[in-house]
Amino acid sequence: MISDKDPTWSDAYVRPELLNALNHEIAIVWTEDISTFDYVRQTAMETRNRKGHARCPNPYEGRTVGYAVLDPKLKDRWYDGFLRRVFWVKAPDRSEDPAGVYAHDCPAEAIDPRTVAAGERGYVTLRARGRDPIHFRSGCQACLTAGRKNWQVTPYRLWYDPTRPAYIVGFYECPEDGSKWRCWNASGRYFSDCPCGYCVACHLKEAS
Question: I want to staple 151 with a disulfide (CB 3.0 to 4.6 A). Which of 94, 123, 143, 156 is the partner?
Fold first, then answer.
């Protein structure tokens, strides 16, 4: 389901200041219909007020689509302002350019707005990622050896170790001959044995 949590997303990607901004939230206000967004960017930033519209972190390239409201009893100030979450989008994002650079991925600060609530940081879903986990595919060696064409299959199970961020193993079973195998562990957001273009590009980047 596209509303499922992306198994490659981890709490390790959440910045510390963002976690601090959650402590005194009492509401989230959306200025636009979130059903039109697969994802939004979220940033913790200083504002003068506890409530009301918050400016976009990048006003020259983006716009605010939501913001957090803080407890009116909050007195302690973070440096010279109140630390609040702001939700925003910019020109390259999928909502603005469906066929652009984020057509099948999302930026690092992205979050599915449907998973956000006051005091809840939310997470990235398959909807936000913009694709089914197609790069979790691997090849059946028996089928490759026999010259069969339909050798790519998707995993029937993914295993995620919560103690090791982004450590994922895909378990496979070939419907052609029943062969079973598993991929090597994932490092970051890609599988070490995956033949898709995204993972290959990651390998090339690591090797350079």
Answer: 143
Domain count across the chain = 2
In terms of Cα–Cα distance, which of 2, 35, 44 is closest to 128? 2
Which residue blocks in the chain are alpha helix, DSSP H? 16-21, 126-129, 141-146, 197-207
Structure tokens that stand for 173 in this block: 């079973």
Tell me which of 129, 146, 174 is where a domain ends: 129
| CA distances for 12 relative to 9, 15, 163, 166, 192, angstroms | 8, 8, 10, 9, 20
**Would you state the structure tokens that stand for residue 123, as one six-digit string?**
């997470």
pLDDT on residue 129:
81
- Domain check: are 100 and 140 in the same one? no
Alpha carbons 56 and 155: distance in angstroms, whole number: 40
- The answer to pTM > 0.90 is no
Range of the structural domain that residue 202 is part of? 134-207
Same domain, 125 and 138: no
Residue where a domain stops, chosen among 86, 101, 129: 129
**In the predicted structure, residue 77 carries a pLDDT above the cut 90:** no
Q: Is the pLDDT of residue 207 over 80?
A: no
